Predict the 3D structure of the following.
Amino acid sequence: MNKRHLMLTLLLSTSSVAFAHQYDDYAQVLSTVPQYERVNTPREQCYSEYEPMARGHQERDFGGSIIGGVTGGLIGAQIGKGNGNRAATAVGAITGAIVGDRIQNQNRDSDDGMREVRRCRVTEHWENRLTGYQVTYEYAGRRYTAMLPEDPGPRLPMHVSLEPFVDRNPHPPRRW
């Protein structure tokens, strides 16, 4: 029983191949037209503008005050004894904080100070992208058109497969 199934399967699988004929050939290319797709790739463009800073609206940095106060306090602690030492430390801390603040924020107290403002916007950027080639070619006296990923040049390689037409329709078409 197994031999019969094997023989039947082998016979059926090779029956259509036995009638087919395959070979390689070339078709003449008549025209090649590149095909493009229009694509938008948005881009961000940034630039800087300088705006005047109004007095009183400027943010102050306190790092200079802190560093100046600590430094002034340490220097003041080296002077005097007892209550004089404490007073010198306090005066040194206050003086150091004022000096440190003025040094760090010296440009922020003027009316003509400028600050940088960074602005960005998205712009459209259209470009054409090659999607393939519409190729018109002639083979065996007939014209065909195909979309190909590359330009084939003057001749288009063809893989030709011939097999007999078997009409599986038992009724022929009507002719009027």
Notes: The domain at 23-37+129-162 is CATH 2.40.50 (OB fold (Dihydrolipoamide Acetyltransferase, E2P)). The longest strand covers residues 21-40.
